[in-house]
Write a structure and sequence with these properties.
Chain A starts with a helix and ends with a helix. The first copy, chain A, is built from twelve helices and ten strands. Chain A has one domain: Alpha-Beta Barrel (TIM Barrel), CATH 3.20.20.70. The interface between A and B is large, with 57 and 57 residues.
């Protein structure tokens, strides 16, 4: 199945993306402080949320911190998502970017070895560093465009040939999107800029971090990306869902947090439809 | 020991950096086509070259392609380098870059779990994505500035506030270098631009890819970075050393290739001294 169709189906199910950033220091006290606990925690979270999520986004750093064992846990988590929710997109939040022959190996690792559908990549090294991730129309890449952090000001807001760098990146990626398997990472902490990027990039799906702990604006993110049928973006939340409760009711609390987010999104869509 | 002093000592030993990019399809026929062969191959290469190398640079993609097993091999390779050549710098060629709390976990993975001295990072997300890698003066980061690939033209050569983006990055990183543990990645395929970046960045060490298979200019790289005492750059070669011979004499051939590179570098230094 093409990535374009997979995304269409996943977003029709739900624009909610759950970031799997498991932190041993934040797991409920029922879990032992050892890496193996992460897989058990992830499974509980996935079981109680997968009917509500359009995507899961494991953040590779949280697994690589435990070396080879972390990679085992990452692989097992991805297999668990696949069997629990085959229609849900799995986005490798790995922010890779390297020359062609190296990027091809990262693609092999993330798509074929681990079984993800998409990956986040950095644009800095240009087309040949992104190409191996979008060469097969069944897999896709979300290219960093405007990130949610403070450091986005250092380069992304600079003017490059009469436009902001994030706009320049959005234009470039639009030109690379022959297989309709490119997306953009646009942080929820920048609503006006997100609207500008949406204009440039047409129907390209966004991956939106920054809701919750980072203070991004959910309402604007939904408004800007609602295309009349669906929200054309995976809106990510990690910490606000995973650690909704630090107690043994963490899984129920996580489900409740996702349901709250779902209701908020639907309310914005309804309001938006009425206004129109 | 500070990263600055480690680099000083490593470069005084040798500016040659050996890229450990082991490709199963290119290993000599004596090796079985299975991931475990990579460790045996790496060990032979390290044994026969470590007296001549100032740095080793494992490229993470070549290990991640084998998942958890690849990470085991990567860890074992790094431990082997450390015991065979404790004075040699180990640079994680991982090109990471993410928001602060995530970058801190990558730093934990690469410096503490794996035991590398430095990492390559992308500048696109700005200072807070680089900070966790340079917060401890005993470890360092080589920030992508001007890469050796074709795609470097897509963004790095664009004009940003009256200068080229790679110059802008070099200036920014110079401002971040309080602990003298920042370096820059500058490809050997762009000699004139490398000279410009050297002027901007003072005594910052470079990591120079692009010699060999990518056609970069060794002579210029040495000339530009010779500071009167040492070449202030790790000049990387991967494929030309690892696969100098496809036969069972691969390790001797690798040593010969490194010796040839050493002689070429010394000849340029000698010529340069005479001219002066």
């Amino acid at each position: 199945m093409t990535f374009q169709l997979r995304v269409e189906r996943a977003l029709t199910k739900s624009p909610i993306c759950i970031g799997l950033d498991p932190d041993l220091n934040k797991l409920p006290s029922a879990f032992k402080k050892e890496p193996a606990s992460i897989l058990e925690f992830n499974k509980k979270i996935i079981e109680t949320t997968c009917d509500l999520a359009g995507a899961y986004k494991p953040n590779f750093a949280f697994y690589e911190a435990f070396g080879a064992q972390g990679w085992e846990i990452l692989g097992a988590t991805i297999r668990f998502i696949r069997s629990a929710a085959p229609e849900t997109i799995i986005i490798a939040d790995a922010k890779r970017g390297d020359i062609g022959n190296t990027a091809a190996l990262y693609a092999q690792s993330v798509f074929h070895h681990l079984g993800c559908d998409a990956i986040t990549v950095s644009p800095y090294m240009g087309l040949d560093s992104v190409q191996p991730f979008i060469a097969d129309k069944n897999y896709g890449a979300f290219v960093l465009c405007l990130t949610s952090n403070e450091g986005s000001k250092d380069f992304q807001y600079r003017t490059i040939e009469d436009k902001k760098m994030y706009e320049f990146v959005a234009e470039k990626v639009s030109g690379w999107n022959n297989h309709r398997n490119c997306g953009l990472v646009v942080g929820a902490t920048h609503s006006d800029e997100m609207a500008a990027v949406r204009k440039i990039s047409g129907a390209m799906p966004f991956l939106i971090p920054g809701i919750g702990a980072q203070g991004g604006d959910l309402e604007s993110a939904v408004k800007i990306n609602f295309d009349g049928q669906k929200v054309n973006a995976f809106i990510n939340s990690s910490r606000a869902i995973l650690y909704a409760s630090g107690g043994n009711d963490f899984a129920e609390a996580a489900r409740k947090a996702v349901l709250t987010m779902k209701n908020q999104i639907e309310a914005v869509i309804l309001k938006n439809k009425e206004v129109k």
